[in-house]
Fold each of these.
Amino acid sequence: MAKPDFELPKLDEVLKTPPVKKGASAHLKIHPGQPQMMEKLGFPPALVDGWQKKAVEKLGELKEKYRSVKLFMEVCVKCGSCADKCHYFLGTGDPNNMPVGRQELMRKVYRKNFTVGGALFGGLANAHDMDEETLKEWTTYFYQCSQCRRCSVFCPFGIDTAEITMAAREIMDSIGVGHKYSVEIVGKVHDTGNNLGIPKPALIGTLEFLEEDVKEATGADVKFPLDVEGANVLMITPSADFFSSPHVDSLVGYAKVFHAAGVSFTFSSYASEFANFGMFMGNYEQMKKVAERIFQAARDLKAKRIVVGECGHAWRVAYSFWDTLAGPLDFLDVKHPTHICEFTNDLIKKGALTLDKSANDEFVVTYHDSCNVARASRMGGSPGGQFEIPREILRAVCNKYVEMPDSVNREKTFCCGGGGGLLTDELMELRVKGAAPKTAALKRMMDEKGVNTMAMICAICKAQFTKVLPYYDIPMETVGGVHQFVSNAIRLGDK
Amino acid sequence: MSALTLFYAGLSYLCAAVFFGGLAYKLAGYALTPNPLKIPLTPQATTAAGVVKRNIVGLVVFRALFGGERWTWIGGYSLHVIFIFVFIRHIRLFINPVPEFLINIQPPALLFAMLLPLPIVYLFARRVYVDRYRHISSGADYFALVLLLLIGLSGLTLKFLSHSDLAGVKEFLLGILLLSPVEMPAHPAFLLHFSLVLLLGFYFPFSKLIHSGGWALSPTVTQIDDSREKRHVNPWGGR
């Protein structure tokens, strides 16, 4: 691993609150959205004339469209409970990465324009105009938030910085300042059906290769069908599952589960993406458009239900938003999306899968809760199912499973550091630093409990950790998907 | 009627209008602003009763703050509990006759109420001495604490150092309440105390103190986790 050109957080200290270091991450900037990409999504290609006024108008519009924006702008008492709960603050010490500090960047503009006190007392109330300096802070620090919601767990009023960050990004997009990574990705979904821009032939090639590969390894004819009309299940999964490692190992796991259960399924080349970066942009229309594509595929293929793969924010969109955005899903037999973990766990409970746990004996596995699954969704019928179901699967397929400490587990989990549309190279320093708190917990588990594997159900978490763990001298192979271990353990008789 | 009484009686009615009107305006403003999407902070209860129960428990113990920042919880929690005792101490000035139990709990209530300055000074010091809180604190945050402290100190002055004509005060307050103001006791400490309370009344709805009612309309903590069971409709979402 090449030495980074920045100082790595010390893992034995990163879980303690750091001293405030003003401007510590002010140099970490996104690449702006290219004009043609911005226009493609209906945004101005570049910073518009009179943007100061237009940004404030947009904020005024959003505060009337989203109760979260209005209420969260006004009820914060600045108690500071959230201050040291953000992984980016713990990793950088920059006070604008304290959730309340980040919110303040919008709140000062809000105060100036929409409150009596701010209009009357200005500076005394920390009210500030939208100006060049403020925009610079926005383009920096609203792209240093991964919308993970950890801060809101500790807020007495449930103030969710993710809502503020989404609004800020929406405002910036509306005045012509976008994020290259996100606008490019959403553009690709509109063109090709997935974030990576994978064309159909490449998808066919991969799936055929996987079929041969699994046949060779297991002797079973596990199918990876594409665009099969009338299949029972439409499988929607993050496109990273088709091409990235370790993601693809989970994809193999899904296919084996369907095979073992005897349930027909198909992928779709029209909707070959579960991720929905419209959410990261805070743009309702884009989020809706991306979701509609999936619904269209389900209609076209006459599927009876939609099962979705391992992806965190996309599960939030599917579980919490799909029905509102593009629903109802009344043309399906199962009128809501099913998470692959729910699907697999049901089969395990029914005894429908033959599992050989010893196949995973080389792994001492712990589980990383992904933010959007943990704090913004549910699985199963009761609260907290999103925590228990993936764990039940892991315990069913692995002999050696170890739990993370409570302070970083379940709804208190730390973000991997790459969520919220920040999984981009220009932010590598931020990603490495933001990953430090969870990595510190993992490192301790490795040293004390002999853990050698961290399982998860999020494509972004997987991509992020495989990239940043080596900075901390932890091998990238430590990262795995839950269905990767299902895949290892499942025994496929030719039933 | 003296000019002083006229002035304060008028100001009291204005204050009541601004306070209650402002509170209603603000809270109705939140309530009428749509929640386009389901954004409960999970795990959350899947029924309305479950959410209410969870939030009542959360309110009684200040759960999120307790789990988040214990030192702040100590200050914030004790401050709010003391508010309740201060409130209990004051009811007797606004009702006639005063029920027996209310008279009986005055001494223990006083014991707690007189502690009011302690958490305020503590919370103030916290903002000054801890670098994170110093960074996020602005004039408004200090102002709210100072205002409450001055109200508390002037109140304690009335109780322990410079007694006002309590019967006269009660008569004045009841007069205001019953819309037939009577002469106001021109006691300096009382005038100060009363003026500061009026200032608080004007300030309250338009400041961060709106958190007192606002939290109950916060979508993340009040929405039910039932997106699977019940379709949530966005009024401006075009579906």
Amino acid sequence: MFRFTVRRLLNMIFVLWAVSVLTFLIFMVMPGGGDEQAALRIAGRNANEAQVQTVKREWGLDDPFYAQYADMMKKVFTGELISYVNQVNVREEIVRGIPRTASLVIGAGIIWLFFGVVFGVLSAIYAGRFTDRALNVLALIGISLPVFWVGLVLLYYLTDRIALFPPGGYTELGDDPVDWAYHLILPWFALSILFIGFYSRVLRSNVLDISNEDYVRTARAKGLSERRILIRHTLRNALIPIVTLFGLDFGAALGGGAILTESIFGLQGVGQYASDSIGRLDLPPIMGVVLYGAFFIVLLNAIVDILYAYLDPRIRLQ
Amino acid sequence: MSVTEPAATPGKAKDEPLLRVEELEVSFATEDGLVQAVDGVSFELKPGEVLAIVGESGSGKSVTAMTLMGLTRSPNARFGGGAHYQGTELIGASEEELRRVRGAEIAMVFQDPMTSLNPVHRIGDQIMEQIQEHEALPDQQARERTIELLERVGIPRARDRIDNYPFEFSGGMRQRVMIALALSCDPSILIADEPTTALDVTIQAQILHRIRELREETGAAVILVTHDLGVVADIADRIAVMYAGRIIEEGSLDQIFYDPQHPYTWGLLGSITRVDRARPERLPAIKGLPPSLANRPQGCHFRPRCPHEFSKCIEVPPLEARVKDQPDHRDRCWLSVDEKRERREVRPGEIGLPTKDEPEEAPAA
């Protein structure tokens, strides 16, 4: 376990470093990117040549690119990273976005995991029958609907036509828990729908595969009830791959991957911040958000590996 | 119930059958049509008896065994006939009734020990699960009994190994775990479906030896499903030979080995290797292939492969006693007993299957 932890930590540091280098290099070479453009953006639309030169000098934008990279990394660690466009501190913006993103993603994660598992199991139990077919159609619809379309349709019908829900925005959980949930119901639903469809299909086929395993037949020969066979023998094995899926999807969404949902419902979370910054080609926030996101993905990956070793004794951490 | 005490059948005479299978039929609807896997199988099992069901792959022997425990039930399976076990009709039983029988009264050891145990649970938990399903026993007692069972099937350091996972055991050890599992509730019938097929030869012998010993200790009747006549000779009391879904001959070990009546049985016996005889160039094999169960020949199923086929064989021969004074030796062949004895060239334990066009050479002495 100790060796595993050390190895994973080293691995994590390497991945984050590689991600930061790639992000930086891509920005430097892409059209509209690079230090010249950055200086122009900082100086503003009406700046003259002298002002741009001053900005370049003050922000270190005429240094060699590796020096610029080192400077940026220093700022990442000291929390001094500042946006080119509006000179706002990046860390403060991300910290402001985290509870919003976390509220959305944790809530949606619980919903999609719960319904994904329930529908998947029902589909497998009633395989080939009406319930299975109906759930199959629903799952395919869920997988096929783009999040932005679902979000817009929900907003249009349930906030505009019928004022059932607030048209986006966010209330702190600590201020008013009911209003918090009220604001999040539609985003939760919009974000979950794809995952529910996807997870239920994956679980259905896993459960059907495992049902044919010899050890399930052994369990039946032992005289166990169908319920116990399903839970203790079939599901216990069929859920293992779902853990991987969930870890990765959850990590990506928590790391700012729920860009569309956050933007449509104006949640002002990390994802929306990422999307706004990318739109403005604003390197410091992009760097901040990318590293933040990568951190969660790598972290969840490590957690999944640990969970795996716990769920499947044949796998040992080393 | 203590595990060392022989399972008694209360209120019944010793020779009263424990299990009576009557005209059992199992068919499956498949894409290729109706597959008749088991076709009118009848047999009886007495307490403490070892009955071997022998046949090739696809002869219906495993389906017969699994059907007794209701393990072949599926939406596309059809059943006929009956199997009476001590007042319970197994074929039509509800799942609830079957659950009380499974594991507790009739237990099963499967062919592949590598895949028959759940990889994510400790072996002790898997055995205790069965004990506690059938008996209200506190954890500690169930655990003690499990350790005792593991010791009895020959697992060293059972007290430590009880908390191991299946992947920490070899194939032979896993099969011992399966046997311990099967014996954990003192069943009166143990069904072993090719219990040694997946194991290497030395382990096979150990496992068979164990099964025989345990049978003597517990008094459980055993149904041994196998394609291996060598295995049968070791432990069986009675043998039922199956071919294409039917029992074609049934009798005691000696009757089958020394006075086989059905040409298919002759063929099976002729294909055993013997270490005490000169090795033939090639092992004799029965010509042709077993019929597809979806499209079986009319009359005797062995007819297309049988060198002794004649006009009568187009009718299905009933399974009945044909040898004089041996009411428990039954077969399905129209030939007269004298004809059979003449054609099969009896030498004790060494019986070939001469074919029509190439008569068998005299075996090397």
